[in-house]
Amino acid sequence: MTTIGIPRALLYYKYYPLWITFFEEIGCQVVISRNSNKRILDDGVRNTLDEVCLPCKIFTGHTINLIEKGVDYLFIPRMKSVETKKSFTCPRLVGTSDVIYYSLRALNPPTILSPYVETYTHPLIEAYLEVGEALGVEKDRVEKALAKALEVQEKFTHFKKKAPSPHQIMKKLSTVNREFAPANIPPHIEDEGSDGKIKIALVGHSYVIYDPLISMNLIDKLTSMGIEVLTGEMLPEELLMQNYQEILKQMHWTYEKEILGAANYYLKDDQIRGLIYMSTFACGPASLVGEAILRQARKHQDKSFLALVVDEHTGEAGVMTRIEAFVDMIKRKEGAAHGN
Ligand code: SF4
């Protein structure tokens, strides 16, 4: 059976149900790289340019892991636009397949399937027909496979909005689980999301905040400190879009609109005590989005705000110290507000 390697990095965190379902439906076997670890990071850093962002370096490491596994093809689509309006993704996401090809030539990588996903100007099916043609799969089968894959993707989106905590989302991502039926979503667990806990919102790219290595397991750390964590993925799309437009009338980066919308929504939410924006060093869009969130946060003096920028040299101890200080500050404010 033909094997397709999908790196567990970047947009895997958004589209893994769609991609895996599609390939399985056309009769391929999907191989996902292992969860991020130090070796993957080191391989990525050694084999890519210094100036790229950390998620792209990690992506390179994941691709090497798949090359070592001996997959027949790598799937690295050029995700140019994912909306039907004039909105785009970061140029680095569009160029990843080229960067991988030229960076890893010496490792003799397998053929890279890299169709243009450009839904602003072309129907999505065109990208998948291109993949089908490269693999010798007939049009009919590709169309049915994509329809099924989109269904599963929709269930994943729905699951994220209903998940009782980001842990549930992380678990799906780390175990590549594609069971999203409501019965599989645990009811609100007593010790998660229960009343009385301090609520902190965490916003940033899904491949940053859900990657255990890049985020340094921030969600787990906050939870172990007795904090209830909420992320942007848990909010409905319409809310994200409405809220980003309150800050910027127009922005042409799809995923950044979501981050901005989530930040603005949580800053206005009376139940939220603090907001953490996590980004990575050398991220182009973050320089604009981070500034916009900071300005917005200044208007909400009742909320504490922390911007965390990480790269491959960031020490976990330093991040932990900042997180502990941030949580302490919120707890002290809470205590003062209640006369303690
Ligand atoms: S948005 Fe930032 S972190 Fe994401 S790929 Fe682009 S530069 Fe890297």
TrEMBL record:
InterPro entries (alphabetical): CoA_activase_DUF2229, Dehydratase_Activator_Redct
Superkingdom of this protein's organism: Bacteria
DUF2229 domain span: 3-235
Gene3D superfamilies: 3.40.50.11900
Pfam families, per database record: DUF2229
Protein name as catalogued: DUF2229 domain-containing protein
Species of the source: Candidatus Hakubella thermalkaliphila
